[in-house]
Amino acid sequence: MAGASHYILDLPKFDSAPRLLIVVAPYYKMIADNLVSGAKAVAEDAGAKVDIVEVPGALEVPTAIAMAARMADYDGFVALGCVIRGETTHYDTVCNDSSRALTLMGLDGICIGNGILTVENHMQAEVRADPKGQNKGGGAAAAALHLISLSRKWARRTKGIGFKPSESFRIAGETDGSKNA
């Protein structure tokens, strides 16, 4: 299946290697293995150090990332797994809740690349997971790396409130630093 062509950013460059945790749900083992393979290759191309943990399913991926963000020393995370539509609404719950949880963590400043596939059938998953095809695992790793790069860039800056800390200022009613009583 041919997809629309799209622009892909070059991988960011790092002064020190970022630490990435890949959290994968290997429910569909072959799909998960391909996602991990693609993510690892992209991370290694950027010079990142990678650890991998497995969790039972897509709903556990955000929980594991939240735990690691609190308790471990990683710069970013790659969420990987696959949800294939079935006969019940469970598909919608898993897709929506895992995605929502990852998004909320991202909004809190956690650098996450979301590579949890949500597809109609196994063939769609195979095409998207293939490192030589759509390489969605690699894309998720690249997304996490770009967010890490931004967080490092912005962490070096101080957010001011209208003046520089080295500037002197007076509160109304004060002269030369002493209060008028």
Can you characterise this structure?
- With 181 residues, the protein is α/β, with parallel strands linked by helices.
- The chain contains 5 helices and 6 strands.
- Strands 2-1-3-4 form a 4-stranded parallel β-sheet, with helices on both faces.
- A hairpin with a 2-residue loop joins strand 5 (174-175) and strand 6.
- Helix 1 (29-45) crosses helix 5 and helix 2 (60-71) packs parallel to helix 3.
- The longest helix is centred in the last third of the chain and has 20 residues, at 136-155.
- The radius of gyration is 21 Å and the shape is globular.
- The model has no long low-confidence stretch (mean pLDDT 90).
The radius of gyration is 21 Å
Characterize the biggest β-sheet: 4 strands, parallel
Give me the count of strands.
Answer: 6
Structural class: alpha/beta
Number of helices: 5
Query: What is the 3D form?
Result: globular
Q: List segments where confidence is low: pLDDT < 50 over at least 5 consecutive residues.
A: none
Widest β-sheet, arrangement of strands: 2-1-3-4
Order of helices and strands: EHEHEHEHHEE
Task: State the helicity in percent bands.
Answer: 40-55%
- Mean pLDDT level: 90
Strand fraction: 15-25%
> Assembly type of the shown chains?
single chain
Give the terminus-to-terminus CA distance: 79 Å
